[in-house]
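Methods — Computational structure assignment.
A single polypeptide chain was analysed. Its primary sequence is given first, followed by the predicted tertiary structure written as structure tokens.
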Amino acid sequence: MLREKRLALFISGGGTTMQAILQARLGGRLRGIAPVLVISSKPDAAGVDRAAELRVPDLIVKVISPTQDRKSPERFGEALLEACEAAHVDWIGQYGWMPKTPLNVVRRYQGQMINQHPGPLDPGRPDFGGKGMYGRRVLCASLLYARRLAEATGGGRGKLYTEVTAQRVDEQYDLGAVLSSRRVLIHPEDTLESLQVRALSVEHDLQIKTLQAIDRGDLKEVVRETPLIPEEHLSLLQEAKQIAALMYPEG
């Protein structure tokens, strides 16, 4: 019988995706992937309590803050690696993880790290990723872009949508290959909050299915045949991202 792959979950906030993954494990939906370690970058993250309350067998919950070694990302990475190696971790999942993962961690787990991103990605080309694009900023930018694009094209592009994404972790923000994505429709009456609620449940399912693909050994990388953002709409993207950053300075 093959040994289960051991998973570390990196979080920084509420940990709702982490919670969905742990519940999938407890409910028997997630087989072959054993969550063994949760690391929060913030001591007051609600996800820390969520993880403890679920009582997953053999799960270790730790807080390792980058502020402890603000001037040395490498030492922060060493602390992460020490915890992962002690738990015999095979894969790392970043689920709402805010710090930039140190290079020594990315290189140690090259090809075995996945990241949850709440918007459409097109690595190497303009998209809704990059430095500063996280949390509500991403959904806000996606919503603004979709609606302004519809206005600019006379509504001729049909239904509006955004995407949620699972990707590989790269040494640079959001440049890792896309592993899977799923569309989320934008309704005419949507606010950021209503879109966020609907998108989050899709994100949870997508991340669990990505882990299932890892277990089956059929994880694939996805490359768009055409750019996500046409050249003539780059200014709309830039404007949407700038407005989102101003509206949500804390992400």
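Note: Strands lie at 5-11, 33-40, 60-63, 91-94, 113-117, 160-168, 178-186.
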